[in-house]
Design brief:
25 strands; FAD/NAD(P)-binding domain; choline dehydrogenase activity; EC 1.1.99.1; oxidoreductase; alpha/beta; 14 helices; Cholesterol Oxidase, domain 2; Choline dehydrogenase; flavoprotein; single chain
Length: 549
């Protein structure tokens, strides 16, 4: 491995890190090092869409974190997947392309005091790296579509390659319940019901390693990639000018390496909402009380590092159905599995091309809401818990999440040893407001399922069960059946100078430390109203533009 200095050291080759590496190494005068704790994305199940079933919980591709026991989940601890491989969580996630709502970014602009985060400004960044299938033939795209979507970028967005009659019926039922149909969740308001678009290309997962590292970045002499290399801490120096980041300390298969920064260079933390605060804390940047407890020297008291954890908690209502095929029975026999495999091999379609959720809906938990605060992920399958076998009866799952939770959690180191996983405590359903939305969302699910469009399939509520009716019962039952939808954000949040808990400023610079920025989902002050992968990519695009001048 090279020992010379670098102009940029990027920690984490996930969603944000891959884009940053591509953009910054485009300048041949800048030396760029990208460091990834996981391995290469050469595991075949990464690229077959249904392979998320074999990647999540697999130490080859997943950090295999777990939350602390959660009071709001009636004492349960949840599996907490995070990608540990080139492409990061874009290599194991649900592939759904979702930007959120325009109001999310208007709020970011308000809390940071920086108009660069307003919707019309972030839209440029989304469009820059987007390659949307509708614009392959722009003459057939809806009027005005090209003003909102991009066609020349690396991040491919395609239609899903299969449909299910039971999901079509659910979409019709949602419309009968007052949720309008939509063909675009990404134009600024995502209210409506429709099929999700996905980050796939010709039936294969399109992760950020494919999009941004190969072949372009890999072919550049000024770009270097280290895999199987875990950053143990940042190298911090203090002089008359103050505290600055001079490089990183990395455990590699070759031993401990200490790549350093050239004069004026920067370390860019892109290790995610769990990894980035953990690395900062191990480096002496975090809450003073925590660092003292762990015996870590305090370089800068930053009480917000690891705080403000937000996530989308999905409540999985399951309905048995009759007269409709679902994945539960279609894949039950050896012949059924063989036919599914053959369909994918010949046409790159069918269940093996499935995202975990195909149909989506955004709506209000009650009519008084000013904006959609719920997201549905509807699936033609059911199981007791992720990773367990499918049920032996036909069923669909209508998972619903509160888009704007008021509960806040934390991520914190439990040891000065980087090999020891941090504690993850989301504090799900810890506020009255979140418990009320949970109860309201289950009641809304029942109202949708009771519509005429689904009557022919005789839906029967399996979970949580029709015997539970009061708000108190439904909120408690939500704690029994809910699980994470894998959207942690906010643990290094950006904010104004007078925000004591802001970790970075609006240009993602770590407070009190020169030469160090954070660029991943951890900088979000509030969670976006939808899936978080593509907003993370937008954040990296914004930073890349600032660094390139």
């Amino acid at each position: 491995m090279a020992r010379q200095g670098f102009d940029y050291i990027i920690v984490g080759a996930g969603t944000a890190g891959c884009l940053l590496a591509n953009r910054l190494s485009a300048d041949p005068e800048k030396r760029v090092l990208l460091i990834e704790a996981g391995g290469k994305d050469d595991y075949h199940w990464i690229h077959i869409p249904v392979g998320y079933l074999y990647c999540i919980g697999n130490p080859r591709t997943d950090w295999c974190f777990n939350t602390e026991a959660e009071a709001g989940l009636n004492g349960r601890s949840l599996r907490y997947p995070r990608g540990k491989v080139l492409g990061g969580s874009s290599s194991i996630n649900g592939m759904i392309y979702m930007r959120g709502q325009s109001r999310d970014y208007e709020h970011w602009a308000e809390v940071t005091g920086d108009d660069t985060w307003r919707w019309e400004r972030v839209l440029r960044a989304f469009r820059k790296h987007e390659s949307h299938w509708r614009l392959d033939k722009p003459e057939t795209a809806p009027k005005g579509f090209a003003a909102v979507h991009g066609s020349k970028g690396e991040w491919r967005v395609e239609q899903q390659r299969l449909r299910w009659p039971i999901l079509d019926a659910f979409a019709q039922a949602a419309q009968q319940a007052g949720i309008p149909a939509t063909s675009d969740f990404n134009a600024g308001t995502n209210e409506g019901v429709g099929y999700f678009e996905v980050n796939q290309k010709k039936g294969l997962r399109w992760n950020t390693a494919k999009a941004f590292l190969r072949p372009t970045a890999f072919g550049r002499p000024n770009f270097e990639l280290w895999t199987g290399a875990q950053v143990r801490k940042l190298r911090l120096l203090r002089d008359d000018a103050g505290l600055r980041c001079a490089g990183v300390e990395v455990l590699t298969p070759h031993g401990v390496e200490q790549p350093w920064l050239n004069a004026g260079g920067e370390v860019l933390l892109a290790a995610g909402a769990i990894g980035s605060p953990h690395i900062l804390q191990l480096s002496g940047l975090g809450p003073e009380s925590l660092l003292h407890k762990l015996g870590i020297a305090v370089e800068q008291d930053l009480p917000g590092v690891g705080a403000n954890l937000q996530d989308h908690l999905q409540i999985r209502a399951i309905y048995k159905v009759e007269g409709a095929k679902t994945l539960n029975t279609r894949s039950a026999s050896l012949l059924g599995k063989a036919m599914i495999g053959l369909e994918y091999a010949l046409r790159r379609s069918g269940p093996m091309s499935m995202a975990p959720s195909q149909l989506g809906a955004f709506t209000r938990s009650n009519p008084e809401r000013a904006w959609p605060d719920l997201e549905y992920h509807v699936q033609p399958l059911s199981l007791d818990a992720f990773g367990e076998p499918l049920h032996g009866f036909n069923a669909f799952t209508a998972s619903v999440c509160n888009l704007n939770p008021t509960s806040r959690g934390a991520v914190y180191a439990t040891s000065p040893d980087a090999a020891v996983a941090p504690a993850i405590k989301p504090n799900y359903l810890s506020t009255d407001a979140d418990r009320q939305v949970a109860a309201d969302s289950l009641k809304l699910t029942r109202r949708i399922v009771s519509q005429p469009a689904l009557a022919a399939f005789k839906p029967e509520e399996y979970k949580p069960g029709p015997q539970y009716q009061t708000d108190e019962e439904l909120a408690r039952l939500a704690g029994d059946i809910a699980t994470t939808i894998f959207h942690p954000v906010g643990t290094c949040r950006m904010g104004r100078k007078d925000d004591h808990y802001a970790v970075v400023d609006s240009r993602l610079r770590v407070r009190g430390v020169s030469g160090l920025r954070v660029a991943d989902a951890s900088v979000m002050p509030t969670i976006t109203s939808g899936n978080t992968n593509s907003p993370t990519l937008m954040i990296a695009e914004k930073l890349a533009g600032w660094l390139a001048g």
